[in-house]
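How a chain folds remains the central question behind the approach discussed here. This step matters because it turns folding into a mapping between discrete strings. The sequence in question and its structure tokens are set out directly beneath this paragraph.
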Amino acid sequence: MDISSTGLRVLRQIAESGSFTAAAARLGYTQSAVSRQAAALEHSAGAVLFERRPDGVRLTPAGLTLLRHARTMLAALAAAERDLTGGAVHSAPVRCGAVPSAGAAIWPAALARLAQTDPHLTVTTREGTTPSLVRALRAGSLDLAVLTSRPPHRPFDGETPRLHLHTVAETELAVAAPARGDFAGRASVHVDELAEAAWIAAPSSGSEPLLGVWPGLPGRPRVVHSARDWLTKLHLVAGGFGVTTVPARLAPVLPHGVSLLRVEGAPVEVRRVLVARLAGRPAPAITAVTQAIMSAA
């Protein structure tokens, strides 16, 4: 096969982004250039690599096979570049992702620990939704991801081999409410009282659930404000504009004016915080970062 490094990077980015358009934007290419690279890859491989679907683009089994080799080849090219430019003495960065709520509670403490125990390591972080971070892991754009799951804790995707998962912590879901107002001075709320509440939630899509509304709420939730950023949601709560859900472990970093309420009259909602990586033996740097995350939880 005659495949260029550019083609391999395009393959990886399509796998991560889930569309030609998003891949082009992240790579700084035109969509037509990405489409040409995709067509050239398929021609060279002699196989269909991409499945075009209404909700985006997914790799076929042949595409996933090529992606596994692409990760190895691109990593080798990066190592060669470091050697040629005199960068071999420095460790490669450990690329980490996290869902926003987990990152806020974990990253500061984990990075502070690494600064003491492994100061030679370079760690980069980014936020994302669980589906986008899982795609980035599979594509080889991330080395680790801090994710959350809800019962029954199914696998994050259907690909094999399964992602390797470390359970960091378990935390109950709670309701963040204004410190002043209907729930002022309370430590709990009955689920029936939340039926008519004004909710502040992240917009949902076909692949991502509505985040910020209590699961199994009686009736249709009344979402008055839509925001993806959890800090935006919490400041709207502090202003008295509604309520939202939040993991109880975020209590130490809640802004002033927000109270945390335990929900009664409904099953306890437990969220699991996990560190995910690709299967196989991890590099020492990845192990060190994983241990720092576990210690910070």
